[in-house]
From TrEMBL:
<protein>
    <submittedName>
        <fullName>Protein-glutamate O-methyltransferase CheR</fullName>
    </submittedName>
</protein>
<keyword id="KW-0808">Transferase</keyword>
<dbReference type="GO" id="GO:0008757">
    <property type="term" value="F:S-adenosylmethionine-dependent methyltransferase activity"/>
</dbReference>
<dbReference type="Pfam" id="PF01739">
    <property type="entry name" value="CheR"/>
</dbReference>
<keyword id="KW-0802">TPR repeat</keyword>
<dbReference type="InterPro" id="IPR011990">
    <property type="entry name" value="TPR-like_helical_dom_sf"/>
</dbReference>
<dbReference type="InterPro" id="IPR000780">
    <property type="entry name" value="CheR_MeTrfase"/>
</dbReference>
<feature type="domain" description="CheR-type methyltransferase">
    <location>
        <begin position="1"/>
        <end position="242"/>
    </location>
</feature>
<feature type="compositionally biased region" description="Pro residues">
    <location>
        <begin position="279"/>
        <end position="289"/>
    </location>
</feature>
<dbReference type="InterPro" id="IPR022642">
    <property type="entry name" value="CheR_C"/>
</dbReference>
<dbReference type="InterPro" id="IPR019734">
    <property type="entry name" value="TPR_rpt"/>
</dbReference>
<dbReference type="InterPro" id="IPR029063">
    <property type="entry name" value="SAM-dependent_MTases_sf"/>
</dbReference>
<feature type="region of interest" description="Disordered">
    <location>
        <begin position="268"/>
        <end position="317"/>
    </location>
</feature>
<keyword id="KW-0949">S-adenosyl-L-methionine</keyword>
<feature type="repeat" description="TPR">
    <location>
        <begin position="357"/>
        <end position="390"/>
    </location>
</feature>
<dbReference type="InterPro" id="IPR050903">
    <property type="entry name" value="Bact_Chemotaxis_MeTrfase"/>
</dbReference>
<keyword id="KW-0489">Methyltransferase</keyword>
Length: 425
């Protein structure tokens, strides 16, 4: 067994990481960096150091898990959460607060987005509590510090930043009233005793983690998620994981772009739902429009490469502004769950502007979210033909290939994306 395979194996045992999903080259780079820092002469010497040190194992894990997250990623899921939260509170009738779990929570953007979204939806702070777990102590400490740079704020709809953050020397500091809603701790989803003894959660966010596991590990992880989620609870996952959860027996809520699932069977003695989970029901009190202040779109809306425009009479900058507005409108429609309208806007955009990577990416994401993987593959590939380093298209196409079992294809795309990021750095 080669040195790389030994390191791949130990990372899979510890955090479930499938080398085929992230690419062996990424693991090899992390091993090389740690070896250099410890002045290890070769792979065998580093393996010995690693094998006898929990601290060194954690250091290697920290290099492999590069967090990629931002506030209000996948905005429709937060809108859906707001609606479901009002319904659940009506059912509870003051018996207890809502219990919400975010894992992996990375550097805190997701659990804090949950808290901001619920507070903006006029749900009182005392009626919900969020637990946030991650395998990385470094990420947990950054989350507790709660100061964020510009990379955590993406898109045009950043009104929430003015409400919940204050400018400081090195970024933006989160308001204390938001931070109080979240409890952070280290935890590993693959730990069979994770949160043992704790009551199950009403809502669980576990997004873009299962795609890095092989099938056996995915099944084991899903069993843990089921245990952590109430039988009438909801699990929010990433877009590329939707087909996986359906295949493993979970049921989609059917809300476009929310990527929300529940147990497919109700427990004995519990009536099966006879209506949509978002059907109107008497709320605790008259509810405002939930999360009307949308966050950023699912992907950057800025157009990539534009073809020459037909209307030569208009100033170029005005036409460019119109293109940006059109893509922002597509994002808004998609995030509002108006999938058919968003798709038609993409078609109209392509007819007016010519082939554009961002429009094809949006068509891919809309197809992906609706369970049409073959269509999604075609659109993502068109986006990459026009813009080979389109990061979102690379990431989603790689995830889709990995979910279909094409580990080699996914690895090639991940390596390509990593090269693009390193050039930008």
């Amino acid at each position: 067994m080669s040195g790389d395979e030994r390191f791949e194996r130990v990372l899979k045992e510890q955090i479930g990481l499938d080398a085929g999903c992230v690419g062996p080259a990424a693991i090899a780079r992390a091993v090389s960096q740690r070896s250099a820092m410890l002045a290890a002469r070769n792979a065998d010497e580093y393996w010995t150091r690693l094998h006898g040190s929990a601290e060194e194992l954690q250091a290697l894990i920290e290099l492999v898990i590069v967090p990629e997250t931002w506030f209000f990623r996948y905005p429709e899921s937060f809108a859906t959460l707001g609606k479901l939260a009002f319904q659940r509170l009506a059912d509870l009738n003051g018996a207890r607060p809502l219990r919400i779990l975010s894992l992996p929570c990375s550097t805190g953007e997701e659990p804090y987005s949950i808290a901001m979204g619920l507070l903006d939806a006029a749900i009182p702070a005392q009626l919900f509590q969020i637990d946030a777990l991650d395998v990385s102590p470094i990420s947990i400490e950054r989350a507790k510090r709660a100061i964020y740079g510009k990379n955590s704020f993406r898109g045009a709809a950043l009104e929430f930043r003015a409400r919940h953050f204050s400018a400081v020397a090195d970024g933006y500091a989160l308001a204390e009233q938001v931070g109080r809603q979240v409890r952070f701790q280290c935890g590993n989803l693959l730990d069979p005793g994770l949160l043992a003894g704790e009551p199950a959660y009403d809502f669980v966010f576990c997004r873009n983690l299962l795609i890095y596991f092989d099938l056996a590990t995915q099944e084991a992880a899903l069993e843990v998620l089921k245990r952590l989620t109430r039988s009438d609870g909801v699990v929010f996952i990433g877009p590329a994981e939707a087909s996986l959860l359906s295949r493993l027996g979970m049921q989609s809520l059917g809300v476009p772009l929310s990527f929300a699932f529940r147990h497919s069977r109700v427990t004995p003695g519990t009536a099966a739902p006879s209506q949509s989970p978002l059907s109107p029901r008497p709320p605790v009190r008259p509810a405002p429009e939930p999360l009307r202040r949308r966050s950023e779109a699912l992907a950057r809306p800025a157009p990539a490469r534009r073809q020459p425009l037909l209307d030569s009479q208009r100033p170029a900058d005005a036409v460019a502004d119109q293109a940006v507005e059109q893509l922002q409108a597509i994002a808004g429609l998609a995030n509002a769950g108006r999938v058919d309208e968003a798709r038609q806007r993409c078609v109209d955009y392509l007819a007016q502007q010519g082939p554009a990577a961002d429009a094809f990416y949006w068509l891919g994401l809309l197809s992906d979210a609706e369970g049409q993987p073959l269509d999604a593959l075609g659109f993502y590939r068109k986006a990459l033909y026009l813009q080979p380093q389109h990061q979102e298209a690379l990431a989603h196409l790689a995830a889709l290939l990995a979910a279909q079992g094409d580990a080699a294809g996914a690895r090639r795309l991940q390596d390509r994306a990593a090269r693009g990021v390193s050039k930008d750095a």
